Every structure is written in structure tokens, then in C-alpha cells.
């Protein structure tokens, strides 16, 4: 069932992308050639996407000793082979007026090269995210099993807390992923500033969540608030005008530090499970700092139907991190009241 859901998600994602791209081309430049050309060419590009990820990159990084050198050579060969296939299709497909001489013209070469690099860039980002998820799951599972087998000593308890916090903070820094996102941002921004800004916000959020806390147990409160704004801006891009959220803050943030991914987890929870399109009952978020006292509140109207599971795992994990970082110095409450889900967090910094 899980594999079926993944395949279905891929199909939906490709249909949305193709519909968006074809619509954009139709509105700006007009469609040229028979409609049956589109499924043929898109099948080729989708095949290039998955072939690069699951054949070329898997082979280079998992079967060879010099993955970067091998992957670079294979990708270059892949680009050349795909160009030959695409040129052959252009020659034999009815309605495509391409002579052999036109296939060697500079505009044709550059446009096809850009198109291939565009899909290969997306493929690299997709493969990087898959690898990152697999590595995190495997590493976390191994650490948990090892530590649970030694649960009789105090030393084990401390090590278990450290590993669990490290997993919750996701301390992996996939440079290939961020380089790919930079490439995608540059390419997508040519088509849509809004989509480009969304990629940029997502990249900053992912970098913060993956890198923050790698060498320190705390971050500046101002940096955490900056990422809250990024998350709100990204959600606003997704929801467009049907997005009602209020974020208020009071007090001086300068010099204050907290454990990373603390407040942003609560904001993510409110956005994920809250009713965002009700103007009368918007999501409310407030941050107040007075001296060494931090008060953070979220309130959201409970969504009647949500695609996300409501297991409370994120809030339970957050409570564990608070107990580890601020023993006896925090108050954390959450629950339902009059159709709202309310979270209250008070910390002595």
C-alpha cells in the first residue's frame, strides 16, 4: 500500500507539472504541432529523470569508488545519448519540421541542452532527498536499537538522549541537495518569480533544519524567528489569498538563545493541522520576551478533515527535548478548547 501511494504521488506530481508547463507555453507562445507530440516527448524526459536517478547516480555512488568522477562522465554520456534520441524523434515525428541541417544549428543545440540539464537537475535533487531520508532512517534505527540494548545504566540514558536529540534536529548537511536547489531556483525563476521565491524559502528552511545544532546545542532566538517568517511566507505562497495567520512578537530578542527547531515546530504544527482559510478565526501566534522569561503561544481552529496523522508525536518529542534542555525551567501545555487547539510554552532562559 505504501509503494502504491508513492507511485500515485509521483503520477500526480508529474501531471500537475506538465499541466502547468503546457498551460504556460500555450498562454505565452502558443502550442505548435499535434497534441500527441506532448505525451511522447514528456515520456522521454520523465524517463531521463528516473534513469539518471535510479541507474546513473545509484551506480556511480553505490557501485564505484570514485562516484563524482564516474557520475560526471555518465551524465555527459547520458546527455549526448538523449540528444541523439531526441534528434531522431524530431526527424521521424510527423509535424516536426526539423531537417538534418537544422539539428546542428546553435538555437536547437542550446535549447535541447538546457532542457536536458533542467530535468537532470531535478533528478539530482530527487535522488539526494531519497538518499538523505534513507540515511536518516537507517542511522536512527541502528542507534535506537543499540542504545535500547544497554538501557540499564545512567550512561546509556544520557547517550540515548543525545542520539534522539540529534535525530530530532536532523544534523545532516547534504551539499549536493542545496547545490541542486540553487540550480532549480535559477531555472524556475525564469518562468515564475513566485515559484522561484518558494524554492529559495524552502532551501533556507531545509538548510536551517538540517545544519542548525550540528556543532552547538543552542541558536540565537532571532534566527529561529527568521525561519518562522520563512515558513509562514512559504505557506502563504502555497495557500495564496486563503491564508489567515497573525504573528505578533514583543520584547528584545538580541542575545537570547534557545534550542534549535523549538518554536518553528509549534508553528508548523499549527499550520499543518489548523484551519487556515477562516478569516474570522485565523491562526494566532505570539512571542513575548521579558528579561529571561520567554512565552510562546499558538492557537488554531481545528481542521475537520486533515491529510496528516494526528498522533501528537511532534509535540511529545518536543516535550522530551524541553525536559532535556530546561529541566525544571519550563511549562508546556497543549489541548483543545472551544474548537481551538491551543499550545502554551513558557521557558526560563
From TrEMBL:
Source taxon at top rank: Bacteria
Pfam families, per database record: His_kinase
GO cellular component term of the entry, any: membrane
Keywords assigned by UniProt, alphabetized: Membrane, Transmembrane, Transmembrane helix
InterPro entries xref list: Bact_2-comp_sensor_kinase, HATPase_C_sf, Sig_transdc_His_kin_internal
GO molecular function, one term: phosphorelay sensor kinase activity
Protein name per the record: Signal transduction histidine kinase internal region domain-containing protein
Cross-referenced PANTHER family: SENSOR HISTIDINE KINASE YPDA
Signal transduction histidine kinase internal region domain location: 165-242
Amino acid at each position: 500500500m505504501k509503494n502504491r501511494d508513492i507511485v500515485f504521488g509521483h503520477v500526480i506530481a508529474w501531471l500537475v507539472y506538465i499541466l502547468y508547463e503546457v498551460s504556460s507555453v500555450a498562454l505565452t507562445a502558443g502550442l505548435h504541432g499535434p497534441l500527441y507530440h506532448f505525451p511522447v516527448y514528456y515520456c522521454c524526459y520523465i524517463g531521463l529523470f528516473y534513469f539518471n536517478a535510479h541507474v546513473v547516480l545509484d551506480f556511480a555512488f553505490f557501485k564505484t569508488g570514485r562516484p563524482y568522477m564516474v557520475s560526471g562522465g555518465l551524465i555527459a554520456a547520458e546527455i549526448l545519448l538523449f540528444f541523439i534520441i531526441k534528434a531522431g524523434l524530431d526527424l521521424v515525428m510527423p509535424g516536426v519540421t526539423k531537417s538534418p541541417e537544422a539539428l546542428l544549428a546553435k538555437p536547437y543545440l542550446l535549447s535541447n541542452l538546457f532542457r536536458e540539464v533542467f530535468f537532470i537537475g531535478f533528478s539530482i535533487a530527487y535522488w539526494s532527498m531519497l538518499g538523505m531520508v534513507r540515511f536518516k532512517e537507517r542511522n536512527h534505527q541502528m542507534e535506537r536499537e543499540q542504545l535500547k540494548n544497554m538501557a540499564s545504566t545512567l550512561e546509556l540514558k544520557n547517550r540515548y538522549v543525545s542520539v534522539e536529540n540529534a535525530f530530532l534536529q536532523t544534523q545532516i548537511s547534504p551539499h549536493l541537495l542545496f547545490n541542486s536547489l540553487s540550480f532549480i531556483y535559477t531555472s524556475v525563476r525564469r518562468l515564475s518569480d513566485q515559484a522561484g521565491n518558494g524554492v529559495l524559502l524552502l532551501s533556507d528552511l531545509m538548510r536551517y533544519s538540517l545544519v542548525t545544532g550540528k556543532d552547538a546545542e543552542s541558536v540565537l532566538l532571532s534566527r529561529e524567528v527568521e525561519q518562522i517568517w520563512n515558513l509562514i511566507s512559504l505557506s502563504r505562497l502555497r495557500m495564496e489569498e486563503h491564508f489567515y495567520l497573525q504573528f505578533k512578537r514583543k520584547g528584545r530578542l538580541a542575545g537570547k538563545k534557545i534550542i534549535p527547531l523549538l518554536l518553528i515546530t509549534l508553528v508548523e504544527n499549527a499550520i499543518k493541522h489548523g484551519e487556515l482559510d477562516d478569516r474570522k478565526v485565523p491562526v494566532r501566534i505570539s512571542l513575548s520576551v521579558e528579561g529571561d522569561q520567554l512565552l510562546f503561544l499558538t492557537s488554531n481552529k481545528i481542521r475537520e478533515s486533515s491529510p496528516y496523522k494526528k498522533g501528537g508525536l511532534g509535540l511529545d518529542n518536543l516535550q522530551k527535548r524541553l525536559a532535556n534542555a530546561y529541566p525544571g525551567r519550563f511549562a508546556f501545555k497543549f489541548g483543545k478548547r472551544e474548537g481551538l487547539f491551543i499550545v502554551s510554552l513558557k521557558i526560563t532562559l
